[in-house]
Amino acid sequence: MIKTIPTFTATFSIGLQKGYTQTLYTKEEVTTALQEYQDKLIKDKGMYLSARLTTCEVVLSGQIEPHLTFDFINYPKFELPIKTLKEAVLKLAKSLMKTFKQNRVVVVFSDDTIMIEIREEVDPRIVSLDK
Known about the structure:
Order of helices and strands: EHEEHEE
CATH class: Alpha Beta
Number of helices: 2
Largest sheet: 5 strands, antiparallel
Radius of gyration: 16 Å
């Protein structure tokens, strides 16, 4: 059987540094938090939100921070309305942001980009070119 559905993609990254410190979370800690969130979605809403996790680094000037990138599609086996998927991905990003003490997360959808920010503060390792 072949099933075709409209394309949906979403991506966001979570920094592995606690705030702007050098203390690192592990991939296992983040994976466990993700799975707990997924299990709750399945139990409470019957929603299956599959994620692909990849390890990467975000580099900006003096900042080099390890991150985990989360990628999502509208998985045909558990197809959901796009609006529902967007809301679920945003809620997950906010939840992980809070759990792992991140100041900012950017969620990139196939049709728009949303920044979620707690404070305007930036990592002090990022060099200001205004100096």
